């Protein structure tokens, strides 16, 4: 699971969960996998993602160094090549291979196996 | 045509063996690529802009591969963990999530610039477990899909409905969830090449529907020929004659088949030497 996906994932499908966001990451194994750098895409996605969540996620995995610390990114950050490269690494290159995602409201855990988060729930939980 | 939907739930049908078989089959790869390219065309994304897309029922990532080739990033959801394992092994560029579309999509609002789904949503019509209620599952799926799409974006589903009722039910549930749009039928004159796409819009309802492919796009123009001298009956051409051959070729073109160009040699008698 890449952090761009983590930034979008919620546990809202569970019964009685209102926002279910952000999911807490408990990583057992994480890897860096190289991906093509497309500055346009990063600059566009940065407006969409929840930066606070991304920063926290990167911090838990130990990759936050070099990321802008502000809660909302300003124009300058978005045009800075170095910053975009760092954000590219955080969004698209870090992969959580084994671990758990935890719902912030119910504490329900979604296991991550082979890099794939398992978001299947039982019928009783819907 | 055999229908895997009849044999059992998708997570059991696409087991390790079936998943490998599916991904190794050249014919399936070709068909999936073509369908994805057409779906991408129907999505009408802005030119030269890398987008973040959702692939529903991404399976082993065949359709996702086409998305990556077109410069987009994607996340895929599928219910079969074996299919997803094959996708991981083939190192697809997208990100994968194990999930059941009938339980709702586990993403936050406005996440994606568009969604595609190739030959997957007909599975929603099935009752694989006692607790399954197809209408409820469809409603859940479409309402969560509507939420996770960015305003103004589209969702395109290629599907093989078993009966017209199924298609109607799916469209109805999508409209209830707030989508506009409808069904596009490519190559309607052919039983084999015919393809159905459910094209859904989240934006304003006055968007024009894209045109379906019929196989004779080139010849289309808006003029009506010979308005005053309309023929009353068209006599059938003599069998094996030039006109008969031309008619037949035209018919096959309409069915989307590959047909040789008409030339002065078409239907000409061979010399005696043969």
Automatic annotation (TrEMBL), chain A:
Source organism, top-level taxon: Eukaryota
GO terms of molecular function: protein heterodimerization activity
CDD domains per the UniProt record, alphabetical: Trm112-like (cd21089)
GO biological process: rRNA (guanine-N7)-methylation; tRNA methylation
A Pfam short name: Trm112p
Assigned protein family: Belongs to the TRM112 family.
Protein name (Swiss-Prot/TrEMBL): Multifunctional methyltransferase subunit TRM112-like protein
From TrEMBL, chain B:
Entry keyword annotation includes Transferase: yes
Biological process, per Gene Ontology: rRNA (guanine-N7)-methylation
Domain of life: Eukaryota
Keyword entries, A-Z: Cytoplasm, Methyltransferase, Nucleus, S-adenosyl-L-methionine, Transferase
Listed SUPFAM superfamilies: S-adenosyl-L-methionine-dependent methyltransferases
Sample GO molecular function, one term: rRNA (guanine) methyltransferase activity
Record's compositionally biased regions (Basic and acidic residues): 245-265
Pfam families per record: Methyltransf_11 (PF08241), WBS_methylT (PF12589)
Disordered: annotated segments: 244-274
Compartments it resides in: Cytoplasm; Nucleus
Keyword Transport: no
Function: S-adenosyl-L-methionine-dependent methyltransferase that specifically methylates the N(7) position of a guanine in 18S rRNA. Requires the methyltransferase adapter protein TRM112 for full rRNA methyltransferase activity. Involved in the pre-rRNA processing steps leading to small-subunit rRNA production independently of its RNA-modifying catalytic activity. Important for biogenesis end export of the 40S ribosomal subunit independent on its methyltransferase activity. Locus-specific steroid receptor coactivator.
Subunit structure and binding partners: Heterodimer with TRMT112; this heterodimerization is necessary for the metabolic stability and activity of the catalytic subunit BUD23. Interacts with GRIP1.
Name of this protein: 18S rRNA (guanine-N(7))-methyltransferase
Originating species: Brachionus calyciflorus
Source organism phylogeny: Eukaryota, Metazoa, Spiralia, Gnathifera, Rotifera
């Amino acid at each position: 699971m890449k952090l761009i996906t983590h930034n979008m994932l919620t546990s809202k499908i569970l019964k009685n969960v209102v926002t279910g966001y952000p999911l807490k990451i408990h990583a057992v194994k994480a890897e860096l996998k190289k991906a093509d750098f497309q500055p346009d895409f990063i600059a566009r996605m940065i407006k969409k993602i929840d930066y606070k969540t991304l920063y926290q996620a990167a911090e838990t995995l130990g990759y936050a160094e070099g990321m802008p610390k502000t809660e909302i990114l300003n124009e300058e950050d978005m045009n800075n090549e170095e910053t975009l490269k760092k954000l590219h690494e955080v969004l698209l290159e870090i992969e959580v291979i084994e671990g758990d995602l935890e719902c912030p409201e119910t504490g329900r855990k979604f296991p991550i196996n082979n890099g794939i988060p398992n978001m299947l729930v039982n019928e009783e939980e819907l | 045509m055999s229908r895997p939907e009849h044999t059992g739930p998708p997570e059991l049908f696409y087991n390790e063996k079936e998943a490998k078989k599916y991904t190794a089959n050249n014919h399936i790869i070709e068909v999936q690529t073509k369908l994805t390219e057409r779906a991408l065309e129907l999505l009408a994304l802005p030119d030269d802009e890398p987008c973040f897309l959702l692939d529903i029922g991404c399976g082993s990532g065949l359709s996702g591969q086409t998305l990556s080739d077109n410069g987009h990033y994607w996340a895929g959801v599928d219910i079969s963990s074996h299919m997803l394992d094959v996708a991981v092994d083939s190192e697809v560029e997208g990100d994968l999530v194990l999930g059941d579309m009938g339980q709702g999509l586990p993403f936050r609002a406005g996440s994606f610039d568009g969604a595609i789904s190739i030959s997957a949503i007909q599975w929603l019509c099935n009752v694989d477990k006692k607790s399954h209620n197809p209408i409820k599952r469809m409603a859940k799926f479409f309402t969560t899909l509507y939420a996770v799409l960015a305003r103004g974006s589209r969702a395109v589903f290629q599907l093989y409905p078993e009966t017209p009722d199924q298609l109607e039910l799916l469209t109805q549930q999508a409209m209830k969830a707030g989508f506009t749009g409808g069904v596009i039928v490519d190559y309607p004159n052919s039983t084999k090449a015919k393809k159905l796409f459910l094209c859904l819009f989240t934006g304003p309802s006055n968007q024009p529907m894209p045109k379906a492919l019929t196989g004779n796009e080139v010849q289309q123009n808006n003029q009506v020929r010979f308005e005053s001298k309309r023929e009353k009956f068209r006599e059938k051409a003599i069998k094996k004659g030039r006109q008969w051959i031309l008619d037949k070729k035209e018919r096959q073109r309409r069915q989307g088949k590959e047909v040789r160009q008409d030339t002065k040699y078409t239907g000409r008698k061979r010399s005696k030497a043969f």
